[in-house]
Amino acid sequence: MTEFQEDMIFKDVCEEDARTFLNILGKKSKKVKIITKELRQLDPTTFVPDIILELDDEILIIELQSIKLEKKHHQRFYIYVAISTYRLDKIKKEVNLCVFTTAEKSKQVTYKINKDNVFKYDVISLSDYYADEIINTINYKLENDIEITAKELILFSLVPIIEKTGDVEKYIDYVVDTLIEFKDLPHSIKSLLYGIEWLIVDKFVVNVQKRNILCDLLGDRMSLMYEYGENKEKKGIKKGIKKGIKKGEDKIILNLLRAGQAPHKIASDAGVPLSRVNAIKRQFNL
Fold first, then answer.
1. Alpha-carbon span 3 to 225, nearest angstrom
2. Is 92 left (phi over 0), alpha (psi -120 to 50) or beta?
3. Using an 8 Å Cβ cutoff, are 21 and 192 in contact?
4. Is-above-0.85 flag for pTM?
């Protein structure tokens, strides 16, 4: 898991936007407060629930899942609920958990811990949504200058786990590229979208270098690009991009340009030739 950025994820999300996300799950509450950070400090390498919301009558843990549930998931979710019950006792509300998934139908899971105890949680299926339909809606509205609703934007951020082909990373690349192009998003919805995508990237991107840099981009910080450049030097790799440079690096440079980073800063931090950065800038008319 990449380093959790406490000052970034879900920063400035207002109740209205959080409530829109909650409504997609079929839940209603007057109070919707994201309190995930209160547990992130416990054990950032193991016990890291995706999202925790304080609602009117409960504390709700939400997990994003793209594969079928197995015993290891039941055990991990049980730990989340147990720890939350202990750490958030001061809030005086019961703790429940639900899983957002396209891999299974909506249902209630009953996991037997021992002969005297069972753990139950709800699975909420996204199988009625289709990634390509969501993408087409977003593209149509962008092309025709039609306002995109908060619900449509949230569903778009969830596209990588909504897709049904199994190619999660392909959709992650597309969604991150598109989100970065949205320049005028209100702080609240931007924080929610970037936070959701940060979680998806962190959970499903296999390549560590790519995962760290995408999380960095979604966190509005460039430090990992600098660390990436330093690591290349430490390993004795000469500066510059060789013929066989991965397309992923080109995408990272493109995303940084779209995010407003100066070409010379990108070249310096990543240890690549300025000419290469400028060539990508010209290619995409940036």
1. 14
2. left
3. yes
4. no
Mean pLDDT of all residues belonging to the chain: 79
Rounded to whole angstroms, how far apart are CA atoms 110 and 122? 9
Cα 69–chain centre separation: 20
Strand spans (E) along 196-275? none
Distance, CA of 14 to CA of 192 (rounded, Å): 9
The long-range contacts involving 49-53, CB below 8 angstroms and separated by at least 24 positions, are: 49/80, 49/84, 50/199, 50/203, 51/10, 51/199, 52/84, 53/18, 53/22
What gap in Å lies between CA 247 and CA 127, rounded to an integer? 31
pLDDT of res. 40: 53
Least confident among 162-166, 169-173, 215-219: 162-166
Contact 194, 176 (CB under 8 A): no
| Interior angle at CA 159, CA 155 and CA 160, nearest 5 | 145
C-alpha pair distances (Å), 48 with each of 62, 171, 204: 11, 24, 15
Whether the pLDDT of residue 7 is over 50: the answer is no
DSSP E strands in the chain: the ranges are 33-34, 51-54, 58-65, 94-101, 107-114, 117-125
* Least confidently predicted of 106-120, 130-144, 228-242, 264-278: 228-242
Measured distance CA(133)–CA(139) in Å, rounded:
10
Structural domain spans, the chain: 15-218, 223-283
Q: Say which residues have a Cβ less than 8 Å from residue 19's Cβ, sequence separation at least 6.
A: 29, 32
Q: Please, what's the b/e burial string for 88-118 (b: 16 or more CB within 10 A of its CB; e: otherwise)?
A: beeeebebbbbbbbbbbeeeebebeeeeeee
